[in-house]
Amino acid sequence: MVSVVQAEAMLTIGRLASYAGVTIRAVRHYHQIGLLREPERDASGYRTYDAAAVVRLIRIRTLAEAGVPLARVRALLDADPETFTAATTEIDRQLRAQIRALQEHRRRIARLGCGDSLAVPEEVVDYLERLRAIGAPAALVEAERDAWILMAARWPAAIPAIMAEKVAQLANPAVVRLYQLIGRIAENWRDEELLRETADLMSELFEQAAASGELDRQDEIMPDAAFIRLMDSFADAAHPAVARLRELVAERGWTGWTRVERRDP
Amino acid sequence: MVSVVQAEAMLTIGRLASYAGVTIRAVRHYHQIGLLREPERDASGYRTYDAAAVVRLIRIRTLAEAGVPLARVRALLDADPETFTAATTEIDRQLRAQIRALQEHRRRIARLGCGDSLAVPEEVVDYLERLRAIGAPAALVEAERDAWILMAARWPAAIPAIMAEKVAQLANPAVVRLYQLIGRIAENWRDEELLRETADLMSELFEQAAASGELDRQDEIMPDAAFIRLMDSFADAAHPAVARLRELVAERGWTGWTRVERRDP
DNA sequence: ATGCGGGGTTGACGCTGCGTCAGGGTCAAG
DNA sequence: CTTGACCCTGACGCAGCGTCAACCCCGCAT
To answer: Which residues belong to any copy of the HTH merR-type domain (chains A, B) (predicted)?
Structure first.
């Protein structure tokens, strides 16, 4: 008679799942990976569960919802209290790490949201703003942005110092004039007169930089010839005027572009 | 000549990946899903990348690391500022939700860590503690715990009220005596004398409960005959003495176990 | 008897974002 | 000529199920 009572109290997979608050598919998955014992079947092949299965399933669900990987759930369910406590401590550590990572993501997303700063460090964003402010053409600012993305990827640590220097340079009226000339080149890049004037100005600025020791510092900061060539080719690809300017500047005794050096005699 | 410079500045997939800070496998994956254009190949079939690919790859990485699903990255990379801002706002919402969920997990894990509260609501943990305190045998406490896991799964909202009632009952000296008798049954469950004494006491308690209207409230709280049968079968499975006690209690005019009713005449 | 709706059964593919073989070819250096 | 560090394609694997497909079973209304 007891067995009759039990038979009446048996559950189908659907009722088991709904009592435990999981999907039928999840229950079968747990069977597959051996988390939950396959129960007896009735005459027509249906799985027949008892109350103990509900309890075990709820335990599984509790751990799984707490973010415990199923592989660990198996061990945890049959663990002694000490092992269990140790494991939960460990899992809590992982959860904290995940939360920190997500918060970091939020910070980055927030930074992305404001302005064109996709993948660009803050200092560079600031510098680009100032470039726009002194009237540099939009296309140049975009090209600069991409170039600094590359630089920041290669030497992230050097970016703050370089940017500080760049921003300081913008106080130099000659530099401002340079960007204004570039603005005019953007409108008419076949004007040889204009290009020559710009090259003269650049040559002058390089002279100043050499005198202040800036060019030597560049060599220290960027000791990777292959990467410098990459940056140069990137500049060349940005606009045809760049190649012409490089020629003109070379005539005035300077080689390179990303990293400028006085040409050996 | 420009093309020679470009050729020299071309990158293999490995150098591209290292500049952008991703794995080679990731780059190939982005090719596969169309996030990054497949570049030209050299004579031996190697992919040859330019600097622009590095920039695009860094953009992809930035978004991906910020937790943006790759499917969205594709759209975001070419989006106008408004769409972009809207999307980042949306993504930030999702991140917040994820963080909240993980924090909830941490809370739960923390609760799991202390004591036997795996999947048991707090109120029940408290009640089980008190049961132990009055000397209930460990096996009974475990059985009770599992039974309350089931109850909490079926009627979570009712648990606080039920537990308050249960705790209050423990102030009744007769109830304390009941659990002490059960403790003795746990040691020798074939002692008919003891079982009879226990059944008498239970009958008496049921009488009190019926008088105070508790039994009627039970009917309201648990209107699910099939589930009640499940709980009963669970109790029967817990210990052979349960079945015998049910018989003896039935002789005294009570049917059921999880939900007790005066037997119809 | 028959049809219907709502259970159940197994099996297999899909999703994310790559990691990780397997089984090759290429390139520069010793 | 070998070695080691690259590159190539193709394919499986991972967690945790969701979601068909194609079929069986049961109770109820017709």
So the answer is: 10-79
In this complex, the nucleotide whose C1' atom is nearest to the CA atom of residue B23 is C18
Pick the CATH number of A2-78 from 1.10.1660.10, 2.40.170.20, 1.10.10.10, 3.40.50.1100: 1.10.1660.10
Give chain A's mean pLDDT.
85
Residue B36 has pLDDT above 90, yes or no: yes
∠ Cα B231 B232 B238 (to 5°): 90
- What values do phi and psi take at B34, rounded to 5? 80, 20
Across the interface, of B21, B106, B237, the residue whose CB is closest to A153 is B21
Q: Just give the CATH number of B2-77.
A: 1.10.1660.10
Eight-state DSSP code of residue A156: G
Q: Of A216, A56, A235, give the one whose Cα is nearest residue A147.
A: A235
Tens digit of pLDDT for each residue in A83-141?
888 888 887 887 787 788 778 778 877 776 665 666 788 888 889 888 888 888 888 88
> Which positions in chain B touch A232 (Cβ < 8 Å)?
5, 9
Q: Is B252 on the interface with A (CB under 8 A)?
A: no
**What would the mean pLDDT of B129-133 be, rounded to a whole number?**
88
- At residue B41 the predicted structure's pLDDT band, cuts being 50, 70 and 90, is very high
| pLDDT above 70: residue A164 | yes
User: B139, B239 in Cβ contact below 8 A?
Assistant: yes
Tens of pLDDT, residues B75-96: 888 878 788 888 888 878 877 8
**Total Cβ atoms within 10 A of residue A232:** 21
Q: Do residues A20 and A61 make contact, with C-beta atoms less than 8 angstroms apart?
A: yes
Residues 6+ apart with CB under 8 A from A6: A50, B233, B236, B237
Cβ count near A71 (within 10 Å): 9
Helix, coil or strand: residue B198: helix
CB nearest to B66's CB, from A92, A109, A116: A109
Pick from A15, A54, A56, A35: which is nearest to B151 by CA? Answer: A54
Q: Strands B261-262, A261-262: parallel, antiparallel or unpaired by DSSP? A: unpaired
